[in-house]
Design goal:
Layout: H1 18-29, E1 35-36, H2 48-59, H3 72-86, E2 95-98, H4 101-112, E3 118-123, H5 132-135, E4 139-144, H6 155-161, E5 166-172, H7 184-197, E6 200-204, E7 231-236, E8 249-252, H8 255-269, H9 274-285, H10 290-309, E9 325-329, H11 337-348, E10 350-351, E11 353-354, E12 365-369, H12 374-390
Parallel strand pairs: 1-10, 3-4, 3-5, 5-6, 6-7
Antiparallel strand pairs: 2-8, 7-8, 9-12, 11-12
Helix pairs in contact: 2-9, 3-9, 4-8, 10-12
Length: about 400
Amino acid sequence: MEFKQAHRLANLHVSGTRGVFGKCAELAAQGIPVTALTLGQPDFDTPQYIIDACKKALDEGKTRYTDGSGIQELKEAVCQKLEKENGLHYTPSEISVTTGVAQGMFVALLSTLNPGDEVLVPDPVYLTYSEIPNIAGAVIKKYDLLEENDYQVDVDQIRSLITDKTKMLVIVSPSNPTGGVLSRASLEAIAAIAREHDLLVLSDEIYDRFVYDDEQELVSIASLPGMKERSIVLNGFSKSMAMTGWRLGYIAAPENMIEPMNRLSFYMTAGATTFVQYAGVAGLLEEDGSIERMRQEFKRRRDYLVEEINKMQHFSCKKPEGAFYIFMNIKKSGMTADEFCAYAIDKYRLATIPGTAFGRNGEGYVRLSYASSMEVLQKAISILHQIDQEL
């Protein structure tokens, strides 16, 4: 029979990273090694105390269904984390546990957006935010985050995009792909706009534990006056605890928002994996210094890359304040982002992500992940120096 996909998928685009990962897989199948700075995945193992907690849960038979919104112990632990680290006061009834932040994005956006609603999304941004609203029938409007503005918001531009159909504004801080962190001034300006126009704000804070400089303040927009009631905060365990494959995240929002999200989430997954949730409790309450050790190592890698890249004639980068990505400016090379990535992998077996995978403002940039060993990063820098000298 002829298969026809659902109409709602017509505007769901293939990821701009697909070509890079496909090429890497093709080379790997041929036994050709690739220096890859592509994955947003810590190269560290999940801390042992988290693994032990998971084993204990399995040994104790914690393998049955739980409440669809998550086990009480985990929701309480999340509340403690948010209070202590982010200055946010939530109760367990305002927390929804999800199978990773990706599912949290779907739940949050599909629970709040109706066909025709407008949502303001940063550009560049992690590509999911440019796609999920399409499934809800919403209209995506992009606001710029530019290197020359230190990846801070242009308040006048945001105001110019708002209409009577605008319902939500999305922020991601620290940012994938730029590593930028929104300043308190930027967040206060966004908060003022949200209050003035009665907007929801979805704040993705998955990288909040990876901010590197003591002088860099990390503010959750939900902590600002009048913002908790209109904020949806997403966070999880994948990045900070090296748990990408465990699939565990959470949403924090007022109870009147969480209730419909829980209903939708239940029909999607019936709840996050039970024993993984107990591992998450340990991750939050029994921290053994692993997160700080990862943070310090990422900082060391970041500083190395920034110093080396900014020695080059054709490449440069702004020092990222958070996450674990460099958004390298390649405009002086004369190549587009796609051309550079193709050249680097075809000739030097160096895999990078074109900035255009994250939006139109990514043209002239490539994303480098430093969630790889220093040995891999040093090899990548050696290759970049060779390319720089060739140009």
